[in-house]
Design goal:
The protein is mainly α and 73 residues long. The protein is built from 3 helices and no strands.
């Protein structure tokens, strides 16, 4: 069970062009999105703490995404 609801994920897949989506496909993507979101969030929290802040800002999220992309390639 994920935090991200499966139905909205199915709508995202449909918006991307799929005519039909299985429940398991939506659930799998929801799980992947949640895992990626947690990875980005953890990195953003570390960046905010490094900057001496408790508040995670947009810039922390953007930088965390950049870091994730660079480590993936």
């Amino acid at each position: 069970m994920t935090i991200i609801p499966v139905a909205p994920v199915g709508r995202v897949i449909r918006k991307a062009g799929a005519e039909r989506i299985s429940e398991s496909a939506s659930a799998e993507l929801a799980m992947i999105l949640e895992e990626y979101g947690m990875k980005i969030s953890n990195e953003a929290i570390a960046l905010a703490r490094h900057a001496g802040r408790k508040t995670v800002k947009e810039e922390d999220i953007k930088m965390a995404v950049d870091i994730a992309r660079k480590t993936r390639d």
